[in-house]
Amino acid sequence: MLHFENVGMRYGIGPEILRDLNFSLGEGSFNFLTGPSGAGKTTLLKLMYLALKPTRGLVHLLGHDIALTPRSELPMIRRQIGVVFQEFRLIPHLSAFDNVALPLRISEESEDIIEKHVKELLVWVGLGNQILAKPSILSGGQQQRVAIARAIITKPRLLLADEPTGNVDDNIALRLMHLFEELNKTGTTVIIATHNQKLIEKLDHPVMELTDGELKILNNNLNRS
Amino acid sequence: MKRFRRDLPFEADQIGRFLPWIISFMVFLGLLALAITLSISETINGWNKNMSSHITIQVPSDKASSDDLQKVIRILKSTKGIEKVQLLDNSTKLTLIEPWLGKKTENLSVLLPEVIEVETERNKFDNISVLKIKLREVIPEITIDDHREWLMRLISTSDKIKIISIAILLIIGVISVTSVMFATKTGLAVHTPIINLLHLMGAKDSYIVNQFQLRVLYLAIIGSFLGSVAAIIVLYIFKTIAQDIELSIYSESIVPLNNWLVLITVPLTAIIISVVTTRRVVLRTLARIP
Question: Which long-range contacts link A70-79 to residues 24+ away (Cβ below 8 Å)?
């Protein structure tokens, strides 16, 4: 599913943000990614959702060696990845419905299927009565649920979430985690980047810890190469 | 049916406000330049058709005898490439000067010159210099008006006007392309966060390009329409003024259908240039995203 080999990453001529990352994640695994601010968690996630290319090393994702994959084939790989961004990144002029529908429209699904699936999912995340609301009138928690719904609407093979519990209280955070676990049970590989140690302790999942650009595996079934 | 998708908030940028005006201005200038050139060209072509095969020969009546005149006519008739030679009678000459002197010319005391109208075979008669020498040997005061001489000068001027017009159209084209490039780049900069998001969700370049293209197509159609309407109004005013003052250089010639078909290429080209430029700029920019 995901394999990093001697991966290093630097921005421009600056120092390496990530150094010698070597790990593999199996299909259907659930993993936490933690570490102090500035450790490189977001950069690592960006490498995973193909927003960045590593400055060195090999990234194998969903059966593709990314360095050897032509640019024209990357959209099809990206469509199998759902991302919950830290700052949600909802499109302000689109309704909750249209925001969630976006990945399906990009994948050229029919409007009938889009209508059915998006409405069902919005009801499932508790936004059944906010379908046509624009992000600006939704609360932080509601925006977050729209962002999560958008990330999972295509039933991605890999779900990446960057601090998804950053703006919610512990109860909602736990509910969100259960939502991700539900998704994980259907076969989706989940990686959650979080600072929330309480949450990590409550849920029994492998933890990858990034410190100063280096990755440590704390308790897990990860295959370290 | 597939809906027209517009994920990018185009209302938030300024392109929609200024691009139609720039395009309309360019189309307006382009149409005026082309219409005026076509009009001049058409008029001169008309003259060329009618006059390039004519030579008018005048002999002052008091300077030549009837024999000399007949000799001149014989030389003309025997010259290769001359089709028809006609010595104008007095009534025809009076008709010719009627626009200047009116109809009451019966008692005219001025001695009118003898006038010979010569019709040459188109493109076959080119020995005017030799003919002039031969005729002047018979009557030194003879005047030979070869219409082709001044017509050639007019055609040469018309060709220069055409070149200037093409240069103007090219400049307009370059300005249009630059404006659309600038507008598209501005739009891309304004919408970068959403473009990046669509890209990360797996949108192909074509998905994003199509949205920009459709937007610019819509704006270019509006701009071209406005520019064309303004140009039609101005051309109509020109035509009315030209008819009022009987200005032959700006004649009826902009009206025929074939010219309108040429003129319609200006707004169409503006639309095509806008859409193609947008496509290229957006594709080139997107290609830089990994």
Answer: A71/B287, A71/B290, A72/B204, A74/A50, A74/B290, A75/B202, A75/B203, A75/B204, A76/B202, A77/A50, A77/B202, A78/A49, A78/A50, A78/B199, A78/B200, A78/B201, A78/B202, A79/A103, A79/A106, A79/A107, A79/A154, A79/A156, A79/B201, A79/B202
How far apart are the C-alpha atoms of B172 and B199, rounded to whole Å?
Answer: 35
* Contact map slice: B 195-234 vs A, CB within 8 A: 196-204, 207
* CA nearest neighbour of A202 among A157, A224, A170: A170
Q: Strand (E) positions, chain B?
A: 54-59, 82-87, 114-120, 143-146
pLDDT digits (tens, 9 = 90+) for B211-233: 999 999 999 999 999 999 999 89
What confidence tier does B253 reach under pLDDT thresholds 50, 70, 90? Answer: low
**What residue ranges of chain B are covered by domains with CATH 3.30.70?**
61-140
Q: Which residue of chain A is at minimal alpha-carbon distance from B5?
A: A105
DSSP assignment of B124-184: T---HHHHHHHHHHH-TT-EEEEHHHHHHHHHHHHHHHHHHHHHHHHHHHHHHHHHHHHHH
Tell me what pLDDT residue B1 has.
39
Chain A interface disruption, residue of B2, B6, B200, most A CBs within 10 A: B200
The alpha-carbon radius of gyration of chain A (Å, integer) is 17
Determine, for residues A75 and B7 on separate chains, whether the beta-carbon distance falls below 8 Å: no
**Averaged pLDDT for residues A145-163:** 92
How far does CA B230 lie from the centroid of its chain? 18
Is the separation of the CB atoms in B52 and B122 below 8 Å? yes
Residues of A within 8 A of B204 (CB-CB) are 72, 75
Element (H, E) at B94: helix B90-101
Question: What pTM was estimated for this model as a whole?
Answer: 0.75
Q: Which residue has the tokens 């512990």?
A: A170
Query: Which pLDDT belongs to residue B101?
Result: 73
Q: Which of B193, B202, B290 has the CB atom closest to A106's CB atom?
A: B202
Cβ atoms < 10 Å from Cβ of B233: 11
CATH number of the domain at B61-140, out of 1.20.120, 3.40.1350, 2.40.10, 3.30.70? 3.30.70
Q: Domain ranges for chain A, please list them.
A: 86-155
ipTM of the complex as predicted? 0.88
Pairwise CA distance, residues A65 & A72, whole Å? 14
Nearest to A111 among B3, B193, B194 (CB): B3
Q: Chain-centre distance of CA A86, in angstroms?
A: 10
